[in-house]
Amino acid sequence: MHKEYFFHIPELDLNKEQQSILYKRFLVSKITHKGYNKNTHSYLNTFHTNINVFEGIYSNSIIKQIENLCEGFPEDKFGRSSSYEFLMTKGKVEMHRDPVRLAVLTIPIKHDDSKLEFWNEQETEIVSELDYSDKTYIMRTRTPHSVSSSKKTRVFWQGSIFTRDFDQLQNDYRDGRLFK
After folding, report:
1. Where does residue 107 rank: exposed (0-12), middle (13-18), buried (19+ CB within 10 A)?
2. What distance in Å separates the CA atoms of residue 26 and residue 110, rounded to the nearest whole number?
3. Gap between the Cα atoms of 130 and 158, Å rounded
4. Beta bridge partners of residue 108, listed in sequence order
5. Strand residue runs (E) in 5-140
6. Each residue's pLDDT tens digit, 96-105
7. What is the DSSP letter of 75?
8. Is 131 helix (H, G, I), strand (E, B) or coil?
9. How far is residue 113's CA from residue 147's CA, in Å, rounded to a whole number?
10. What's the pTM?
């Protein structure tokens, strides 16, 4: 069993104004179907995007660090065209493991009180929970996880991490080598 499943990146937390700007950029993707990926699960609406959605929200230094963190997306069955995506979902997200990415940077844009649930390796019990709230996290994705049901739509920006595992990222952050 893993000791930790997520860690907070306060340097990337968005205020309400920044969330509003990013939400409007998401709406443009949704309305135009720009970057829409039809290959994801039916309960997820995924819109691939690029790093410039953060212009005017984060400094160029932070944007460059996100870019470096999320480099190297693979060709896979999900038809990725980018390591970056807006993710919109409502209701329960079934237990699953991410088959390709090692970790994910998750920035909430519109959220509710649902919780991310991390399961033991046998997939028999929840061993840790995360209340998304307004905070930005890097999360372990190869372990079984799900999201409790909600009645409201949730929207996140996600940066998929393919080349560095969660434990390495957590150590880099704690040692001041990431987002400091």
Report:
1. buried
2. 10
3. 16
4. 156
5. 6-8, 36-37, 44-49, 84-90, 93-96, 103-110, 115-119, 126-131, 137-140
6. 888 888 999 9
7. P
8. strand
9. 11
10. 0.89
